[in-house]
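Handoff note, outgoing to incoming analyst
You'll be picking up this chain. Sequence as last confirmed:
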Amino acid sequence: MDSVFEELYEKYHDDIFNFLFYMVRNREQAEDLVQEVYIKVLRSYKRFKGESSEKTWLLSIARHVAIDFFRKQKSWRRRVSEKFDWNDDQLCDMQPLPEEIAIQKEEIQRMYRCLERCTIDQQLVIVLRFIQSLSIAETAETLGWTESKVKTTQHRALKVLKKYMEEEAAKGGKQHEKISVE
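Most recent structure output, in case you need it:
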């Protein structure tokens, strides 16, 4: 079991840590949750039947650990890491200007605030699909959903997130106008 555990750890530790960090947005808490995941892995590995990939199985365990954490905290609000790139379609200069960095950080922070307003299911799908780069099939397997439910949730999540982002941008513009007038 030691060699199997070490192999799982080597292959998937970063994926599990990143997933949990994106969910809780706190390094120390994510590290604690990763330990909980591995405790559950050690206890349940004998029951793993190989019906899914190891990565999907581990991320599914991590998902349950994260949900348990939020239930204990009585808070379903979470954030996604700054690695979520809304400007995927634009070419980026390898060395962006400080003004560009500041604008990007503001947009990412706005996205964090908006993502917190989404449902937990929407947040899970966004993190798994766009941060963890899982396919629809892998996401469905990880969440224990049908592919159809993943597609529907993803569609709704992106639609709602876009709406929230537009609302935030409009609020920001109005606040900027108030400051300029005064």
